[in-house]
Design a protein that fits this description.
This protein is mainly α. α1 runs antiparallel to α2.
Length: 114
């Protein structure tokens, strides 16, 4: 969780990685529910989403990610780079936040400098 206790903070932009995972999860839930309530043929869509997730994990090539990037949605690296340039911090003690790594201290110790 963020330092302020909110999982979904209005200051954290949605990235194409987060949006794609949310879209995949919602698709699986929706099609599995429709397969249970309406017709088992909806499970073919669920299998398609699962195959796309597996293919994406193995090859790092995802059509949804490509489409979201073409639409201009930023990635985790873009958000982290922008936060670093603007010196944004989320913690009360001035630690910088790293997208995807909660609670990582970005201050450099004397031992690391040497």
């Amino acid at each position: 969780m963020k330092a302020n206790g909110n999982l979904l903070s209005s200051t954290t932009p949605i990235t194409h990685e987060r949006f794609g995972r949310g879209l995949a999860g919602a698709s699986v839930l929706l099609t599995a529910t429709l397969g249970w309530l309406h017709s088992p043929h909806w499970l073919w869509v669920t299998m398609g989403v699962a195959l796309n997730l597996t293919f994406s994990a193995l090859t790092d090539c995802c059509p949804v990610k490509s489409a979201l990037m073409r639409m201009g949605m930023p990635g985790e690296r873009d958000v982290g780079r922008a936060e670093a340039q603007h010196g944004r911090t989320d913690a009360a003690d001035g630690r910088r936040s790293v997208p995807g790594r909660i609670g990582v201290d970005m201050r450099v110790s004397a031992a690391q400098k040497a």
